[in-house]
Amino acid sequence: MPMVMIEIENIKKFMAGFLGGNLFDDFLMSEGKLSMNISYEFDGKILKEFYDTEEWKEMKQYPYVTWEEEKEKIFSLVKGKKTPLSFQFVMMLKPDLSPEFLAKYNLAVREDEIAGLFINILYDRQGLKCTSGVSRKTFVLDKTLEEAWDQEVKERFLTKYL
Asked: How far is it, in rounded angstroms, from Cα 90 to Cα 92?
């Protein structure tokens, strides 16, 4: 499967966009892990039981929490004098933004064939890497979707941090 792995050179600038800016506001947090003095693991799935009926009706249609909603909480865990030992976040493009992406690259792929368009962000004390990934609901030999997503990730989200 085509996949781009990009080493982020300007980590400080990337982190400002990731945790303090709007770099990934078009994404859902699928999952995350954060290792500091203790380890945290995040399952981004929204728990319906937490909300009353009225609140739940107003919730978005997404199965996962939006990054825009969660980043402040993550930032409050990370901020401090010491950098984390490591972290990993799996970000998924909001499903309702898939049609725009497919149209941009003239892809003849139906939305319902895509399980998710992902960016995996991995930091350890050696550096910060981002990888792209596509999850399909069925197997296909054609990899134009994956190639287009690789290009989109690199050009739209990561180029300015290289």
From this structure: 7
**134 strand-pairing partners:** 117
0.85 exceeded by pTM: yes
In degrees rounded to 5, what are phi and psi of residue 158? -120, -20
Give the pLDDT confidence of 126-135 residue by residue, as tens digits. 999 999 999 9
What is the DSSP code string of 55-103?
HHHHS-S-SB-BHHHHHHHHHHHH-SSS--SEEEEEEEE-GGGHHHHHH
Query: Is position 162 within any domain?
Result: no
Residue 23 domain-assigned?
A: yes
Q: For 82-112, write each residue's pLDDT tens digit.
A: 889 999 999 999 999 999 999 999 998 988 8
